[in-house]
Amino acid sequence: MAQREQRVTPLELFFDLVFVYAITQVTLLMSDDPTWHGVGRGLLVLAALWWAWTGYAWLTNTLEPEEGVVRAGMFAAMAALLVVALAVPDAFDADAVLFGVAYLIVRLLNLQLYAMAAKSDPDLLQAVLRMVAPAALAPAIILVAGFFDGRAQVALWVIALAIDYLGVVIGRGQGWRVSPAHFAERHGLIVIIALGESIVAIGIGAAGVSLTPSIVAAAVLGIVVVATLWWAYFDVYAVSAQRQLSEASGAARARLARDYYSYLHLPMIAGIVLFALGLKKTIEQVGDPLATVPAVALCGGLSLYFLTHVAFRVRVVHFVRRTTTERPGWIGPGRLVTGLAMLALIPAALELSALTALVLVTGVCCALIAYDVMHYREERAQVREARP
């Protein structure tokens, strides 16, 4: 099968609009219940939504989504995903069964479209058949979980997600097709969507309140942090990842795409969502110290984001050392130090005003970008000039 290297299509962007709304709903779920229990449930829902989205990202990387029947299938999946998003705030309560039914439909439609994509490709068909059991069983368990509550419900969710995330390990990437440019662009756009959620959180937090100088300052600082998160990912890391994916082939390329994008982008997206929660609470109470959960979300979310970048580099370095004799470049300590510094700021966020805590995390983020620019000028230029 010919590799698909065209740009992300308008239909894929249209599909992602529903996912944008779903992410917003996850933040709302956690914001309405800013406890460890509420955050945990929100992260479980985010993990389920992410895996559904990755299924369609892999699908449209293989199958032309603008074809007639496929287009109709994508629209049907969008409708089901919208119902999923609407049910997110009560996914563990009144709308648990509705969430489960709609989520199961989203996943089954994905399998049906994959079957169409694999008709003329025996290797891909075998890969899809290996995926059917976990991809159908996991959402079915989430549906069953809707008839339970409490710890039993959460336990069923955890089992379902474990089946989903471990199921793709079967076959070690054999038979899957990955078009690097399209795959990298699709995931880069979803990172931008997640960053946009932080901007939405600023607006929601400031809604209905007087725009005092403190709130305006917090909003501006929030945008600065979001800009540093964008810079940290897109300046070099996204370019380097796409290049490594382009240089790989066959099952090795599929495994790298699975690990770097499907697996490791989830904690990064989760970090952004947690930061959005902390930022929303910061805007709402700029003059008071944050409660424990919002403080951990503000600082811990950013820590998770940057430590995921460290995991990115570890995975890429492992891949390069196994497949070539090339020395992987630009592996600095900045993101590790930044991630640890964010964790160290949690006690300060519990004692100082929310605005002061935001000032501190903004300063750390800006320091990282300044460090990268000053200390890795040549390495950054080499990576960016070597775009695939």
Task: List the defining traits of the structure above.
mainly alpha; 2 domains; single chain; 388 residues
Total domains: 2
**SSE sequence, one letter per element:** HHHHHHHHHHHHHHH
Instruction: Kindly report how far apart the N and C termini lie.
Output: 21 Å
Helix fraction bin: over 70%
**Percentage of β-strand residues:** under 5%
- Compute the average pLDDT: 88
Largest sheet: none
Radius of gyration: 21 Å
Strand runs, count: 0
How would you classify the helix and strand content by structural class? Answer: mainly alpha
- Distinct helical segment count: 15
Low-confidence stretches: 323-330
Judging from the principal axes of the Cα atoms, what is the shape? globular
Question: Helices and strands in order, then pairings?
Answer:
Layout: H1 10-32, H2 36-62, H3 68-87, H4 96-117, H5 122-145, H6 150-167, H7 180-206, H8 213-247, H9 250-263, H10 265-284, H11 292-323, H12 334-344, H13 346-351, H14 354-375, H15 377-385
Helix pairs in contact: 1-2, 1-3, 1-7, 1-10, 2-4, 2-6, 3-4, 4-5, 5-6, 7-8, 7-10, 8-9, 8-10, 8-11, 8-14, 10-11, 11-12, 12-14
Task: Tell me what the structure shows.
With 388 residues, this protein is an all-alpha fold. The chain has two domains: 1-177, no CATH class; 178-388. The protein is built from 15 helices and no strands. It has helices at residues 10-32, 36-62, 68-87, 96-117, 122-145, 150-167, 180-206, 213-247, 250-263, 265-284, 292-323, 334-344, 346-351, 354-375, 377-385. Helix 1 (10-32) crosses helix 10 and helix 8 (213-247) runs parallel beside helix 11 (292-323). The protein starts with 9 loop residues before the first helix and ends with a helix. The model is unreliable at 323-330 (pLDDT under 50).
